[in-house]
Amino acid sequence: MEKTIIKYENSPYQEKYATIISKFSNLGLFILVISYLGYISGFSEPFIPFSELSSYWSLPLGDFIEKSGAPVGWQWLDLLAFGDYQNFIGIALLSGVTIIAYGGLFLHFLKSKQRLFLSLVTLELFFLLLAASNLIQVGGH
């Protein structure tokens, strides 16, 4: 029996998407590590002091938010000066990697004038950004 070898090459947009995902995922992980090191070393002052931290652990979410003054939704952006919120930058970047990659695809398809793919990517970006914006709230949370 003869062995068949199938050669597969990625399309340019697949390469672009994978490159963006890889680079921004690595950047997000790097930011997580650096922000964590800054937090545990005491380089960045925490919003909730270490001495008070354990008193909040057993609280229900509503009580925790009320007693600690913790932010809700995108309000964490106001607290980026504090070490315990700086890791949110890495988390937000990791959760937004798909949006960033689709942005790269949008530019690629815009430049190459591939209207069908451009339309699909535009719709995908619209719904991803809509979901991230918190303008639509579905469910009981």
From TrEMBL:
- Its recorded name reads DUF1634 domain-containing protein
Q: Which residues cross the membrane?
A: 20-40, 88-109, 116-136
Q: Which UniProt keywords apply?
A: Membrane, Transmembrane, Transmembrane helix
Domain of life per record: Bacteria
Organism of this sequence: SAR324 cluster bacterium
Q: What is the lineage of its organism?
A: Bacteria, Deltaproteobacteria, SAR324 cluster
